[in-house]
């Protein structure tokens, strides 16, 4: 996939393809890849609002990828709302004890990013 995207001569086309694919929510692994690729390669070409949305999808996909495969589908609709996803995981007691530290770290990253954005 990376070779195909990097092989495009028109960077704008690559950006459009990635954004369109990401908006279709093709699946967890693909969403994670696309959000990461957009962040690394097109950070300055997207609006701040779009950048936040892509960042949220990237964080949400990271959280889901740490869950057991059987639990992922229940929380996939919350992919673009990582704080809500973490809240639901904690409230539903779906988070094993060793996962709590990672959840707290994700919350810290999200909240810290929101504080910096609003300054």
UniProtKB/TrEMBL annotation:
It comes from the Eukaryota. InterPro entries: ZFYVE26. One of its GO terms (cellular component) is midbody. GO terms for molecular function: phosphatidylinositol-3-phosphate binding. Transmembrane segments: none annotated. GO terms for biological process: double-strand break repair via homologous recombination; mitotic cytokinesis; regulation of cytokinesis. This is Uncharacterized protein. It comes from Hucho hucho.
């Amino acid at each position: 996939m990376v070779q195909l995207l990097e092989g495009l001569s028109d960077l704008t086309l690559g950006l459009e393809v990635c954004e369109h694919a990401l908006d279709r929510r093709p699946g967890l692994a693909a969403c994670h890849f696309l959000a990461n690729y957009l962040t690394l390669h097109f950070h300055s070409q997207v609006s701040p609002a779009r950048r936040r949305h892509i960042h949220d999808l990237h964080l949400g996909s990271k959280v889901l990828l740490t869950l057991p495969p059987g639990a992922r589908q229940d929380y996939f609709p919350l992919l673009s709302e990582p704080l809500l996803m973490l809240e639901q995981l904690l409230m539903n007691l779906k988070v094993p004890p060793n996962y709590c530290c990672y959840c707290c770290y994700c919350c810290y990253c999200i909240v810290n990013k929101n504080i910096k954005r609003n300054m």
